[in-house]
Amino acid sequence: MLASKWSSLPMILVAMAVLSGCATTEPLVSKDQFLELMTLSSQKADLLADSGKKEEAINLLTDVARAKPDRKEPWVHMAKIHFDAKNYSQAIVSSEEALQRDRADQVAKSIRAVSGLRVAAQSLTELRNDVDLKGGARADATDLAMVMREILGEDVLVPPAELEARKKREAVAARKKAIARAKARTQSATPPGDTSPPKGQATATTGNPFGMLK
């Protein structure tokens, strides 16, 4: 049943586009006709996207959008497909198209916001080690990072796995520095040629590098 309906989609789209183009004062495509077309097109677009044919899915929804230019639904669906494909720049564009038709659409707002954050995070990562990043660009990056911390919390800015790895690296580095400082103090307290332990230190080795810091 669905196969027969989908096979007629191109003809329906062409007919709706022609009718919409000929309309003068009132649209000739009814709301019910559009909703039926949108339902069928959404189902087929999802199947196409799931099978890796995302470009075909987008083209199908683009035809639906042309048939009824004042409706947001095709653009919201396109934004979802782009977002799932990690094509965040196009997800933002499609979300903007949807919001031009309905400023209150929460799905479009969410996709636009999260896509924008991911694009910004990627850009900041690429620029982090750029020695030529100066002036206004660096200030803008700093301001954006501060805003993201205020909204999401500092730890949320870093993926959990990367955050945990960073904490471990910092802990290892801190231990190495403490050991190096302890060795430096021991060497400075021992006269040249004197192998006896510093005053106040036990002769037996305890194996605790932080014992002298107590």
UniProtKB/TrEMBL annotation:
Presence of keyword Chaperone: no
InterPro entries per the UniProt record, alphabetical: TPR-like_helical_dom_sf
Leader sequence residues: 1-23
Region Disordered, annotated ranges: 176-214
Top-rank lineage group of the source organism: Bacteria
Sorted UniProt keywords: Signal
Protein name, per record: Uncharacterized protein
